[in-house]
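Weekly sync, protein design subgroup
Attendees: M.S., D.O., the rotation student, P.L. (late)

Item 1: inverse folding check
M.S. brought a backbone from last month's batch and wanted to see whether the design step gives back something sensible before we order anything. D.O. pointed out we never logged the input encoding, so this time it goes straight into the notes. Structure tokens as presented (443 positions):
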């Protein structure tokens, strides 16, 4: 089995910086703010021929035992339980603190194999680690996560007891997984939905907007099909994004949408459809990702309120008529199988392969039923069509004078192809390419 390594420590000791170095990524948010990481965050890494799974955690706050800090501590405890090895990070420049001592006591009681790692040790002498022997966790190892000093030597030591494994073909593995980003406004229930799907409290679900700041990936299986679920930070209106942390979170959310196959836009039925919901939907549409609209907290509405929400959906999200709308309750675990079936359908549509003969026949039928309008002295003539891409599907139409085709006719063709090939749940892009006139005089 691939070893699981948990990174723990008090806030702002450099756990996320080390996580990014160990995974050779920038998947964890890093900034000079204590408490930036809140959930467990998983990533893959490899040193030589030895792979590993590393878990970034939020900071321990043993003294404060209420609210979001209690939830963060609980997530770190779960990471320790899941791990084979714990890297306990302390700050070499700040020195030993009472909080470090309380965390050390917790780790000694856990019985987990623990390495004491003195971070931010660049430029410090060996005497800087002397005070950390007091933690009774063995030899302290000095590193600089930011500069990479001592990290490889530490990981060689950590991975020494574990056997080598053949590299897994990650590309083939990815092809069998559907990457699903859960996006929406803060407090719409995104983390609660993922917890309901996987059947555990994998993510912090707390009654406070903006609990999730990072884009967290969770592996999940449903009916023998593999998924990667991505819980994203809620997107606020630009005018309300003041803190640097919020700006980071918006970037991570947009990156998660871009990297996904299907996005579930989660709406809060109780709060109604806000302008920001439409803004997020517009970004998903621009990104070309397949989409399912999930209306959460549906069980809390009466018949009148449900009619009001449906009218709002039709009025404010009319440009998403191609997307499936599923009414769910994440807290009560209702409608989740309908949501996943809609995700599967949207994924199938986004990656559908369309043959040139079928597309051309559909194009001829469409133009026979309704000719493109005249422009200038003639009428655009469409000859054949072929597929130009997937996720989203792109249909390229070839012919003469196609630069004069109006946007209304483009929308007509989009609806025609969508109905013909059952492309529900995915955007569809139509491109026109005008054939060159072989008799045109060269300049």
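Designed sequence read out in the meeting:
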């Amino acid at each position: 089995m691939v070893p699981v390594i948990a990174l723990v420590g008090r806030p702002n000791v450099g756990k996320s910086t080390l996580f990014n170095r160990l995974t050779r990524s920038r998947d964890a948010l890093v900034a000079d703010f204590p408490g930036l990481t809140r959930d467990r965050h998983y990533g893959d890494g490899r040193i030589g021929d030895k792979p590993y799974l590393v878990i970034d955690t939020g900071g321990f706050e043993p003294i404060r035992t209420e609210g979001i800090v209690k939830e963060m501590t609980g997530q770190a405890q779960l990471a320790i339980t899941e791990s084979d090895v714990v890297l306990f990070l302390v700050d070499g420049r700040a020195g030993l603190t009472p909080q470090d001592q309380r965390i050390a006591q917790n780790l000694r009681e856990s019985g987990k194999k623990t390495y004491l790692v003195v971070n931010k040790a660049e430029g410090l002498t060996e005497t800087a680690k002397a005070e950390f022997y007091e933690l009774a966790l063995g030899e302290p190892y000095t590193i600089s996560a930011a500069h990479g000093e001592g990290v490889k030597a530490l990981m060689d030591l950590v991975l020494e007891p574990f056997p080598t494994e053949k590299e897994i073909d990650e590309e083939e593995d990815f092809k069998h997984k559907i990457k699903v980003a859960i996006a929406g406004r803060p407090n719409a229930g995104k983390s609660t939905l993922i917890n309901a799907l996987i059947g555990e409290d994998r993510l912090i679900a707390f009654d406070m907007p903006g609990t999730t700041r990072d884009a967290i990936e969770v592996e999940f299986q449903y009916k023998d099909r593999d998924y990667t679920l991505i819980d994203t930070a809620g997107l606020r209106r630009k005018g309300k994004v003041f803190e640097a942390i919020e700006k980071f979170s918006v970037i991570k959310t947009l990156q998660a949408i871009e990297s996904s196959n299907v996005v579930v836009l989660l709406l809060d039925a109780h709060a109604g459809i806000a302008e920001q919901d439409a803004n997020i939907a517009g970004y998903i549409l621009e990104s070309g990702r397949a989409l399912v609209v999930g209306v959460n907290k549906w069980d809390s509405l009466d018949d009148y309120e449900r009619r009001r929400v449906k009218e709002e959906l039709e009025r404010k999200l009319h440009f998403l008529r191609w997307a499936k709308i599923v009414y769910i309750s994440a807290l009560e675990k209702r409608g989740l199988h309908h949501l996943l079936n809609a995700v599967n359908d949207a994924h199938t549509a986004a990656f559908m392969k369309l043959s040139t003969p079928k597309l051309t026949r559909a194009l001829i039928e469409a133009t026979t039923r309704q000719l493109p309008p005249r422009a200038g002295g003639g009428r655009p003539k469409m000859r054949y069509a072929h597929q130009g891409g997937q996720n989203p599907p792109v249909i390229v139409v070839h012919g003469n004078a196609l630069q004069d085709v109006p946007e209304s006719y483009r929308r007509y063709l989009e609806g025609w192809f969508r109905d013909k090939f059952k492309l529900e749940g995915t955007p569809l892009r139509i491109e026109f390419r005008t054939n060159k006139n072989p008799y045109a005089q060269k300049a």
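Discussion: Confidence is low (pLDDT under 50) at residues 28-39, 167-175, 202-213, 235-249. The domain at 356-434 is CATH 3.30.300.20 (GMP Synthetase; Chain A, domain 3).
Action: P.L. to compare against the previous round before Friday.
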